[in-house]
Amino acid sequence: MQHSIIQLIGSFQGGGAQRLALNLAEALAAKGHRSVAVALRHAGAFAEADKPAGVEVRALNASRDSRASILRAARDLRRLLGEHNAAVVHVHGSGCIIVAALATRAWRKRPRLVFTWHDSGSVVGGRGLKRAMTRWALRRCDALYGSSRDVADRLTAAVGGKVAAGVFVNAVPDRPLTAAFDDSAAKMLWMGRLVPVKDPELMLRALARIRADHPSSEPPAPGAPAAPLAHPGPAFECILAGAALPHGKAFEQQCRDLHASLGLNGSVTMPGWVDDTPGLLARCNVGVQSSRSEGLSMALLEQMMAGLAVVATNVGDTSRAVEHERTGLLVPAGDETALAAALQRVATDAALRRGLGAAARERAQAEFSLSAMADRAVTAYRQAGAIF
Length: 388
Known about the structure:
single chain; alpha/beta; Rossmann fold; seven-stranded parallel sheet; six-stranded parallel sheet; 17% strand; globular
C-alpha cells in the first residue's frame, strides 16, 4: 500500500493556513504522492472547482477543547493515519498539534510529525495545562517550521532548543496573468481576515488622507456642480475584501464604522468575505498589505502572482518577496503617512503600476510556485526521517 502524506488543519473555514495546506496537498498529489487533507472540525462545502485535484479530503468533526473531545479526536486521527498508511503528518496551526502528538504517541512505526506555526503574532501563548501540553507536543515533533525567520526563532526558544525550527516558505497557484486591466485608474485590493493584526483600519485612514489632501477626488454631493480645483487628486477605487470569524465580529463592525465615518463610501467597497479570489484579482491592479505582523502573507503572494503592483508593510518575511522599488513598495508598519504616500504614488503613475506588477509576477513565479513548495516539502519530510 502506498504511503500517504497528511496535511492536518483545524477546520475548512477559510484563512491562510487552510489555503496553504490544501495548496500543498494538491501540489504533492501532482507529483505522484498519495495526498490527504484532514480537518479536525467542519468538513465545509467545497465548490467543485475549489476541491484540490487528486486529494482526498476528510474531517473528524471533533468538538472543541474539552479533554474528552481531544482524546476522542486523537483516537479517531490515529485510526485514520493507520488506514491511510501515513508516512507524514504535517500539522498547520496550533489548534491541532496536541491531538496529532497524542495520536502518534507510543507508535513503533509512527509517521513523522511536522508542524508549521502560521500565527506571526504569538508563539505558544495561553496558560496552564493547554500551554504545557502544547510545548510537550511541539517537543515531540520531528521538524518545526515558522512562517518567518522571527517566528521560527521564537518557536525554537519556546521548546528550549530541543528542535531547531526552520522557515516554511508559502506558495500560491500560478494563476493566469490578470494585468490586462484598464490602467486609467488605480483599482486597489486588500484581502484577508478582518482582525486587528492585519490592520485594515490603517489602509482606510491612509486612503482618507489621500482624499483629504486632494478634495477633488471626492464625488460631488448629489445635485451639486463639481468645482474644478488646481490640484486634482488621484483617481482610485478600493475593495476591502474580508470578514471576521464569529468571535471577532465587533472588530469587523469597528472597521465598517470607520469606513463610513471617513466618508469613503464612494471609493472603498467592503463586500465581506469573497470566495472568488481569481475574480477579485482580475478586477484590480494594486495589492495592499497593511499588517502589523505577518509571516509571509499568502494574500500578498497571490497579488504578486496575478501581476498586481503591491504596497506592503515591511513585517515578517515580506521583504523576502517584495524588493522595495522593484517588485513593490515597502513601508513601515503602522505608518499612516508612509502608506498614504506609497498608495498615492501607485495611484498616480500607471507606468509604475505596470512595472512593479510585472516584476512582482516574475518574482512570484520563480520563487513561490506550488511546484517549488512541494519539492521543498518532500525534502523536509525526508530529512525528518519519513520514508515514502
